[in-house]
Amino acid sequence: MSKQIGSFEIVRRSEAHAGAASYVGRNSTDGSRATIDVWAPETPVAQARFLERATAAAVLEHDHVARILDFGIDGTTSCRIEEASDGEALETRLRQGGKLSRETALAWLVQIARALEYAHGMGVVHGDLHPGMVMIRSDGTAGLRGFANPRTTGELRYRAPELLRGDPVDVRTDLYAFGVLLHHLLTYEPGRRQALPRRLKSAASLPLGDLPADFPRRLLPILEGCLHNDPADRPSSLASALDALEAVSHDLTATQTSLADVELSGRVPGKDGEPPPSLEKVAAAIKRPSRSRFRRRWLTFATVAGTALWVGGTLWWSKGSPAVAGSDAPVAEAAAITEAERLGTAGAAPDPHPSDDVSSSTDSAVPAGAATSTTLPVHSASRGTGRLALAPAWHPEITVSVAGREPVLLDRRRVFEVEAGVDHVLTFELATRDYQIREQVVTQVPSGRLLETPVPLVRPGFLRVAPAEESARPVFVRIGDEAIGWTPIDGLEVPVGTHVLSVFKNPTWRPEERIDQQIRVRSRQKTTVQFDLESEPPALIVDGQRIEYAPVDEEPAP
After folding, report:
1. pTM of the predicted structure, to 2 decimals
2. Chain centroid to CA 401: how far?
3. For the packed helices 239-264 and 171-186, what is the interaxial angle rounded to 10 degrees?
4. DSSP code at position 242
5. CA distances from 366 to 363, 376, 388, 413, 452 (A)
6. What are the residue ranges in the chain where pLDDT is below 70?
7. Do residues 517 and 547 lie in contact, with contact meaning Cβ atoms separated by under 8 Å?
8. How far apart are CA 518 and CA 539, in angstroms?
9. Count of alpha carbons within 13 Å of 159, Cβ hemisphere only?
């Protein structure tokens, strides 16, 4: 094998498998370290699939995801180059033994779940999650590498049943592997062989005999849901798992803080003739928060309430500002604000963290796929500035408006320089002929930091409406109060959630000629609705389930 791949020099081989190898590389341009993975021989079909996955994963920009620097194919060899972390694989850490604290395991799981949730939101699936793909960095945080692997290299127990059957990989494949990893880390004991997940998962319930007595009970539904045999029975995302993990981690930290309050308050136990506190006193003190904790809670509540009132007053006052869409402010005031913004932008400090992927805010000077940087006016120099990074959205027409400014397309990575320490309202919007969605989030950027913010817009679901029999005549379809058209309808993009679907023999609102039915649309999944209006009573068939029509009491407004 050549000692040079592009601008990267191979230093040494770090790992080898059947038909695959990993190398430690060095960028000959700046001397930075990299991980070079190669697979050979690969079929043309496998290489095409690898290029598709690597192209999708190359846009990932997250604190806990190893960035793909380059990839390509040469003959029958596929190659991927990732940034290298200054740590070791979780697999190596566990193989070395040593006690693993519950707090550390939970922190790693939260970071891995955040990375996967971000990647899934970008439409990227890992497909080969196992401890060898988790890097424990020198600062103690966990990072995820190995996106776009053309082969599964992990242990057999981390592979979902559908992988063994040769079915396509999707988000639920990652959820299964994450469930195995969660069980592995939270039941880890040095020198003890872990139970195989084939004994753990069950379509009905999870055997609690395989779990330690102190296993967090809040995580049991998450573990059971992720380890279902059938992918359809698993959750559709890691959102609920991430919420549960963060809650358990917070509760554990709060309990340890209470214990520290008991041990550190007053005089040192055992000195000056004072006996150490009994176990009963310690337990009672943990259950009863100290007065300082009550004061902290009161201060937290007062801070949150004050912030909410301030934000509400600011939004109410800003209705007269031309920075808000639909404002009726005088033109003279708008001109004054525009002049202030021009002066603020011109006097902004230079970027304290220059980066190769952040360029000028002028779109015409930026090549396709590169990141852009936009400077927003900073009105308080004492707070400093920070940077807000937005990855390319899953649809090229999704726009973002930062603090009421002109919307910007998220067709590539965007970086905004904003005032630090204040609330910024981000408005994400997609408006096409068949699909409209709008979401707002409020975020703060720390001074001198780069904050990665995912796009909150959820991918739509798809709707198909067709007759149960080919001979049936077309019907007219409405979703809520919106007229859709005559059947057949296929591939219609519909927002995620519950909708009322109505079918009519003709496009009128006569109750005796329509059928109403609630349908639930899931992200990136097709909902099929078939109708049988000739049967008695008429019926709809939603995803294979027949639902007979019951007359409605009230007539909807036209």
Report:
1. 0.49
2. 21
3. 20
4. H
5. 5, 19, 18, 11, 20
6. 1-2, 191-210, 255-301, 311, 313-383, 434, 470-471, 506-513, 549-558
7. yes
8. 13
9. 14
